């Protein structure tokens, strides 16, 4: 479902400069369905069982387009283009799927992982970020399985913005994540743990299950070139809209002033060169 809600792409340039990390430490898990094979390779791990790691695909016949290089900055743009649509009171509101901290970690780790992963491997992740909640901000978990096929980035989500609890709300007992892990998505079956609805924009689509002909609302397919071009276009539109005619005129005047100064400096260098030649000639005649 396409949405026309304006999104703050202008902030991408600032986000790219920030170095805001997530705090954390953990151990990742597999569920039955991941194809048996060599041990997974952890790229990042943090507290509360957060991680990014290369794992064997959950389908034996999978052939991904790996290894593939996606620049960290481009990965950040792709991640920041993802939004959740949810109903708040009487209106539907879109919120970023990943916080700035999550974008910081995932852009680096996913870019690295896809460049290292083999055709039979995926990159799984679990992150926790601070997001708006009913009573202010809350720590929410998002998890997924990432891979490339046919030049498109696929993300199968297991969780989206699920409020993270260390203790069971009923018993108040510590939740053992070794027996109750935070799982990524799986090719074999849709997740039933998504909070809100993934909102689509240009270059984004839900995967169509060939067996049923139905959309998988937990499985996003991103046309990388289209998403990046859309982000750049929106950022430029917002930048253009933020500059008044007076500011444009001032920029033009300042640019001309700079060009005049450069020309004057060039002329001055020529004069100094001629003077130095005359001085050298006078010294030689003494």
Walk me through what this model shows.
This protein has two domains: 11-240, no CATH class; 244-286. With 286 residues, the protein is of the alpha+beta class. The longest helix is centred in the last third of the chain and has 41 residues, at 245-285. Helix content is 32%, strand content 28%. It is elongated, with a radius of gyration of 26 Å. It has a seven-stranded antiparallel beta sheet. The protein has a three-stranded antiparallel beta sheet with strand order 4-3-8, with no helix packed on it.
What structural keywords apply?
disordered N terminus, 28% strand, 5 helices, 286 residues, alpha+beta, 2 domains
Short description:
This protein is an alpha+beta fold. The chain has helices spanning 11-15, 72-80, 100-116, 224-242, 245-285, and strands at residues 41-46, 50-56, 83-88, 91-96, 121-133, 136-149, 152-163, 197-199, 204-208, 215-223. Helix 2 (72-80) crosses helix 3 (100-116).
């Amino acid at each position: 479902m396409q949405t026309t809600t304006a999104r703050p792409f202008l902030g991408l340039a600032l986000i790219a400069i920030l170095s805001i990390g997530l705090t954390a430490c953990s151990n990742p898990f597999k569920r039955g369905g991941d194809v048996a094979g060599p041990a997974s390779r952890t790229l990042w791990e943090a507290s509360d069982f957060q991680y990014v790691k290369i794992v064997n695909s959950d389908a034996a016949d999978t052939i991904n387009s790996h290894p593939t290089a996606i620049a960290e900055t481009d990965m950040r743009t792709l991640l920041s283009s993802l939004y959740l649509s949810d109903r708040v009171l009487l209106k539907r509101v879109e919120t970023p799927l990943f916080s700035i901290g999550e974008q910081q970690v995932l852009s680096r780790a996913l870019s690295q992982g896809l460049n290292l992963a083999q055709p039979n491997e995926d990159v799984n992740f679990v992150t926790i970020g601070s997001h708006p909640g009913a009573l202010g901000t809350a720590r929410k978990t998002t998890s997924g399985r990432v891979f490339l096929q046919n030049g498109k980035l696929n993300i199968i989500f297991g969780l989206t913005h699920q409020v993270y609890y260390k203790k069971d709300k009923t018993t108040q007992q510590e939740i053992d994540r070794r027996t109750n892990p935070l799982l990524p998505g799986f090719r074999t079956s849709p997740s039933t743990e998504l909070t809100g609805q993934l909102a689509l924009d240009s270059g984004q689509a839900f995967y169509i299950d060939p067996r049923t002909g139905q959309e998988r609302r937990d499985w996003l397919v991103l046309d990388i070139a289209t998403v990046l071009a859309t982000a750049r276009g929106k950022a430029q539109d917002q930048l253009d809209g933020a500059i008044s005619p007076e500011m444009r005129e001032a920029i033009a005047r300042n640019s001309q002033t700079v060009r005049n100064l450069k020309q004057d400096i060039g002329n001055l260098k020529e004069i100094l060169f001629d003077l130095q030649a005359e001085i050298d000639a006078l010294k030689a005649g003494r």
